[in-house]
Write a structure and sequence with these properties.
Blueprint (H helix, E strand, L loop, with lengths): L1 H17 L23 E3 L9 H5 L5 E7 L5 E9 L8 H5 L5 E3 L14 E2 L1 H14 L41 H9 L1
Antiparallel strand pairs: 1-4, 2-3, 3-5
Bound molecules: iron/sulfur cluster (2 copies).
The site of one iron/sulfur cluster has 13 residues, from helix 2.
Length: 187
């Protein structure tokens, strides 16, 4: 008898939910929007980036490579910007360190690849991804802001643009801080 009551209770619960709106989506045909500030992926916005390398210095894993060359006006030209997602732990420290909101958490979560090496993203692939994101979100960045609300500062001179050695000898990452580079030379 107790068994029959259990079945009836279960059926009643099912019946109750049949008439309620579904809270699930038919993935992958349907996708839920990613909430603002969700820590899904990293998006790099070239138009916001000054090449200051603060993100690369903040990354504990050394995933980010920034190579720049100084322009005559004191700003930096970005020669390379690459992220190695094979070793990224999505901690978001790079996004917190960036003074210009040029790298932000957000974007798609269906980021699986068949070839592991494809998780190394260069400047072109990062830019393609971030521009697709902006197109799909009416020009709104993952932090919810538009360019009008948070204007670009890419013409600003950075601390690095005044350090002559920085960026002149290849990739710039946590292992190649200017201070460390100079003290190594003095030893
Ligand atoms: S999310 Fe963390 S591990 Fe990944 S690139 Fe940024 S700082 Fe490095
Ligand atoms: S900290 Fe921001 S502005 Fe500086 S290089 Fe990184 S992404 Fe670009």
């Amino acid at each position: 008898m107790a068994y029959g009551i259990g079945v009836a209770k279960g059926m009643l619960l099912t019946l109750k939910h049949v008439f309620r709106p579904a809270i699930t989506v038919n993935y992958p045909e349907q996708e839920r929007g990613v909430p603002v500030r969700a820590r899904t992926n990293l998006l790099w916005f070239e138009e916001r980036c000054t090449g200051c390398s603060t993100c690369a210095q903040a990354c504990p894993d050394g995933c980010i490579l920034v190579a720049t060359s100084p322009r005559e006006d004191g700003t930096l030209s970005i020669d390379r910007y690459e992220i190695d997602f094979r070793i990224c732990m999505y901690c978001g420290l790079c996004t917190e360190a960036c003074p210009y909101q040029a790298i932000q958490s957000g974007g798609r979560y269906n980021d699986a690849v068949f070839v592991f090496e494809n998780m190394y993203r260069d400047r072109t692939s990062l830019t393609r991804e971030s521009q697709e994101y902006l197109r799909a979100n009416d020009g709104r960045y993952p932090n919810g802001q538009t360019q009008a609300e948070n204007p670009l500062r890419t013409e600003m001179k950075t601390g690095r643009s005044r350090v002559e050695v920085a960026g002149s000898e290849g990739g710039f990452g946590p292992q190649r801080l200017p201070g460390r580079h100079i003290s190594e030379k003095r030893d």
